[in-house]
From TrEMBL, chain A:
Keywords: Membrane, Transmembrane, Transmembrane helix
Protein's UniProt keywords contain Membrane: yes
Region (Disordered): 301-322
Residue stretches spanning the membrane: 56-83, 104-123, 163-183, 190-208, 362-380
Annotated signal sequence range: none
Name of this chain's protein: Transmembrane transport protein
TrEMBL record, chain B:
Keyword ATP-binding attached: yes
GO MF annotation, one: ATP hydrolysis activity
UniProt keyword list: ATP-binding, Nucleotide-binding, Transport
Gene3D superfamilies: P-loop containing nucleotide triphosphate hydrolases
Biological source species: Frankia canadensis
Protein's UniProt keywords contain Metal-binding: no
Origin: domain of life: Bacteria
Protein name (record): ABC transporter ATP-binding protein
InterPro entries: AAA+_ATPase (IPR003593), ABC_transporter-like_ATP-bd (IPR003439), ABC_Transporter_VariousFunc (IPR051782), P-loop_NTPase (IPR027417)
Biased composition (Acidic residues): 41-52
Length: 384, 354
């Protein structure tokens, strides 16, 4: 039975494993240079690595490959596993041999799921190992805002290395099998598997992952040194609305952290919203600079809320905060903030939560996998 | 048997011996499963699951068997005994429930109502039950990308009773290239491969669901001849469906006509032929026939009546010209929707079904 499972997986497995092995060998071969560069370049490592096209390119390829591999396995290994049998009628051959269909499914599902989980698990570990110098530098706050400076806690990078790809792959394959058993046709099952998998992959970082470990909180004073912009709508001087301030996080573990939310709170800890439009004074002349969301190396994290909604705009201070000429209006503005006791409160997952979150999320996906597998075993007894 | 015109044939002997042993002994050896272990979904758990009222071995027994798909009954209220040790043909119009019945018998489907027992066990209830029953499904599915040799390996891996010598001998005799992928085989060769899997598994009952439906006449004949060889060699009970009576006549010694889930007639073919007569004579009301002559179909012109009657005794009335109906005539007559007297006068009785 294991022979049959392997025989039916062989071609797809050969394609996928060859591609992954090629990537793994390339990574293994280039890792030495990266470590060497990290040791020699010091704080300038991320700049130096980012400037080397091969490293940037390999970083990006690894990121994409690890991200898409579980989905590909679910679509090409999982979805056709039962659906193709049902479509071609070969299930009538397979299920009338002297092996119960439960055992048939257990073996085929087991072989495919384990192979997929192993492939994705190894890939995740290789990616983590290759990216370790980069992650160390980002954690140390050496980020320069470039591609390599995304912290490993940020939602996309989190998915692309470490333990979680193993859970994703197991989930994707069993999801594919389940969908195939329900839809009964291969191509629609593949499409639906992809759609559901992508939806889950988007929903989990947004809705579930922040709660898999209890996040940290920190407050920062709002001063000329830390305030570097605000987000709002309408004219920034009067009549406009300010929704949020952009304040540098001063907490020690902010570098490499995943920012969940950043809110202005008053002395009692209550969220101040909306903020008075007079706060525009804090940034000096209102119309000075209107532009896209500035990249902020010091905050290092991904801002909660992401891009501003349509119709809003982001105003950033022109000169860096430290160099800003503190005019009278600015001084008065910051004095008003201090007098009201307003502070910026941030909720975030520091880098130290990386492995707890990886473990919890892998466990979550494996639990979902188990549920789907139970559904498969229930369902196969009713197929014909 | 709740159908009035479903004669079962009491005599176990058949003149159509095809050089094979009647498999009584094999079927009698089956012990009934302990009641506690096999209590699922059976309404008529009796110790007569393997023997019918006349003491004959039963390969398959259905009682009130029904299967519903999406609100439509593909088979309903089916009562049926299939004797063991025979090559049994199951014939009936499309939609009669033949395929559903066979799929229920091999455990591909589970009954919605009633029960079915095959060789004393519930179909698909476990590996042991699966091993007892071989199945060649409709359109004889095989894995297109596996080679012939890999199909044999598949059979060996999935069947503890696999007879590799038989499988190899058959493949060689049929001229199948072991390295050829099943997808490159002709329909006939694929059917032969599927039959090889079914036979080399060494089941006690081999179920074939329209195995020759998609084959050309030559391939069909070869397949059936090969099936008969296998049956003779391995002492199999066979249950085969087809809507081609001529195919069944060539290989079967027992026939079951299934129409709209009901058994219209069942019996050994020799006996069916011996007890059915086509009578042609002056126009006459069929009700005036002797009591032992059952009219199956009747057609009348102004002056003449043509009847198909079933009787165990001889037909003495000199007014009749007696003819021997072919098996096909007989089957088609039973497949008619009943009520022969409503048939338009002047048209041949056995024409234009459906």
């Amino acid at each position: 039975m294991i022979w049959l499972s392997w025989r039916q997986l062989r071609t797809q497995a050969a394609v996928v494993l060859t591609a992954l092995a090629a990537l793994a060998i390339t990574l293994a071969a280039t890792r030495g240079q990266l470590s060497h560069l990290a040791a020699s370049a010091g704080e300038g490592f991320l700049d130096a690595a980012g400037a080397r096209r091969a490293d940037s390119w390999l970083y990006l390829v690894t990121l994409v490959v690890v991200l898409v591999t579980p989905g590909v396995l679910g679509v090409f290994w999982g979805a056709p596993l039962v659906a193709r049998e049902l479509e071609a009628g070969t299930h009538r051959l397979a299920w009338t041999q002297s092996v119960t269909r439960t055992r048939w499914l257990a073996t085929r599902l087991g072989v495919s799921t384990l192979a997929a989980a192993a492939a994705a698990g190894v890939l995740g570990q290789v990616a983590r190992w290759w990216c370790a110098p980069i992650d160390t530098a980002v954690r140390a706050g050496h980020g320069n805002g470039g591609l390599l400076s995304q912290p490993r806690m940020s939602p996309v990078i989190f998915d692309a290395r470490g333990l979680v790809p193993l859970g994703y792959a197991a989930f994707a394959v069993v999801l594919g099998v389940t969908v195939g058993m329900l839809v009964r046709r291969t191509v629609p099952a593949m499409a639906l598997t992809l759609a559901v998998y992508v939806a889950v992959q988007i929903a989990v970082p947004l809705l579930v992952r922040p709660h898999l470990a209890s996040p940290s909180h920190a407050t920062s004073a709002i001063t000329a040194d830390t305030l570097h912009g605000f987000r709002g709508s309408g004219p920034p001087d009067a009549g406009g609305r300010i929704d949020a301030l952009m304040v540098d996080v001063t907490a020690a573990d902010a570098a490499g952290a995943w920012m969940l939310s950043s809110r202005t709170v008053d002395a009692a800890g209550k969220v101040v919203s909306p903020l008075p439009s007079t706060l525009a004074d804090c940034l000096g002349v209102p119309d000075r600079a209107v532009g896209p969301d500035p990249v902020d190396p010091a905050a290092g994290g991904v801002r909660a809320g992401g891009l501003p909604p349509r119709g809003e705009r982001v105003v950033a201070g022109g000169p860096a905060p430290a160099e800003r000429q503190a005019g009278t209006r600015e001084k008065a503005c910051f004095a008003a903030i201090a007098q009201r006791g307003w502070q910026q409160k941030v909720t975030y997952h520091p880098d130290s939560h990386y492995w707890p979150l990886q473990g919890a999320e892998t466990g979550l996906y494996l639990a979902l996998t188990t549920l789907l597998a139970a559904l498969c075993f229930w369902r196969i007894r009713r197929l014909s | 048997m709740n159908t009035p015109n479903a004669p079962t044939d009491g005599a176990g002997t058949t003149a159509r011996t095809r050089g094979r042993a009647i498999l009584r002994a094999a079927a009698t050896g089956t012990p009934d499963p302990p009641p506690g272990l096999d209590a699922a979904a059976d309404t008529d758990d009796t110790d007569t699951d393997t023997v019918d009222a006349d003491g004959r071995d039963v390969a398959l027994r259905a009682r009130g068997l029904g299967k519903r798909y999406r609100g439509r009954w593909a088979l309903s209220q089916c009562d049926l005994d299939i004797p063991a040790g025979r090559v049994v043909g199951l014939v009936g119009p499309n939609g009669a429930g033949k395929s559903t019945l066979l799929n229920l018998a091999v455990g591909m489907l589970t009954p919605t109502a009633g029960s079915v027992r095959v060789l004393g066990g519930r179909p698909g209830s476990g590996a042991a039950q699966l091993a007892k029953v071989g199945f060649v499904a409709q359109d004889t599915p095989t894995y297109p990308r596996l080679s012939v040799a890999e199909h044999l390996r598949l059979g060996a891996a999935l069947n503890p009773g696999w007879d590799d010598a038989v499988a190899r001998e058959r493949v060689e005799r049929l001229g199948l290239d072991p390295a050829a992928r099943a997808g490159t085989l002709s329909g006939g060769q694929r059917a032969q491969l599927a039959l090889t899997l079914g036979v080399a598994k060494r089941p006690r009952l081999l179920v074939l669901d329209e195995p020759v439906a998609s084959l050309d006449p030559l391939a069909r004949r070869e397949f059936l001849a090969d099936l008969m060889t296998a049956v003779a060699e391995h002492e199999l009970s066979v249950l085969m469906s087809s809507h081609l009576v001529s195919d069944l006549e060539r290989v079967c010694d027992h026939l079951v006509v299934l129409v709209a889930s009901r058994v219209r007639v069942a019996g050994d073919i020799d006996r069916l032929l011996a007890t059915h007569h086509r009578l042609t004579g002056p126009r006459r009301d069929p009700a005036t026939l002797p009591a032992d002559q059952q009219v199956i179909t009747a057609s009348h012109t102004d002056r003449q009546s043509t009847l198909l009657v079933r009787t165990d005794g001889p037909v003495h009335d000199p007014a009749w010209t007696r003819g021997q109906p072919s098996l096909e005539d007989l089957v088609l007559a039973y497949m008619r929707p009943t009520a022969p007297e409503t048939a338009p006068a002047g048209r041949p009785t056995l024409e234009a079904l459906r």
